[in-house]
Design goal:
Elements (H helix, E strand, L loop, with lengths): L1 E3 L4 H12 L4 E6 L7 E6 H12 L8 E5 L3 H14 L3 H4 L6 H11 L4 H11 L5 H15 L4
Antiparallel strand pairs: 1-4, 2-3, 2-4
Helix pairs in contact: 1-2, 5-7, 6-7
């Protein structure tokens, strides 16, 4: 998963298609957590064509999150690496964090201003972009204190 510039997204998809093949699965989210959130999902070749047709000479705007599924050869490679360590990813771990649920739990436990709460969330989730955390904080703070 990574964040891509709206100006480069079509070229990035073309590169993924060249390197990993046209059937490589991708997911693109534009303007996550916002009013005009849109998403595209499927083989990279189809998603690239769909975006090219939608844009037709205009520029895409907004924040873009791109998720690339692991390719078949990547899974085999990771399995080979993990075999030497005794780590089996299917057996040993699978972790999914719902940031909004964590934020709701924290919000119900602490008394602090919005800026302090945003700072706390950034320290808990340093890998998440600030603008995403700000949206999470707004959602939680809007719902939060009344429901305690």
């Amino acid at each position: 998963m990574f964040y891509e510039s709206p100006n480069r997204i079509v070229r990035t998809l073309a590169t993924i298609e060249d390197v990993m093949g046209p059937q490589q699965q991708v997911f693109i989210a534009v303007e996550l957590t916002k009013k005009f959130e849109t998403s595209y999902r499927g083989p990279v070749a189809e998603v690239r064509v769909e975006l090219e047709e939608k844009l037709e000479g205009s520029k895409m705007k907004g924040e873009i999150t791109l998720v690339v599924a692991p390719g078949d050869d990547q899974e085999e490679y990771m399995a080979e690496v993990a075999k030497g360590t005794g780590f089996d990813p299917k057996r040993d771990s699978k972790l999914t964090i719902n940031i909004i649920e964590v934020a709701k739990a924290l919000n119900s436990q602490v008394e602090m201003g919005e800026a302090e709460f945003r700072s706390l969330m950034k320290s808990v989730f340093p890998q998440v972009p600030s603008y995403h955390l700000a949206a999470v904080v707004r959602i939680v703070r809007k719902d939060g204190k009344e429901s305690r």
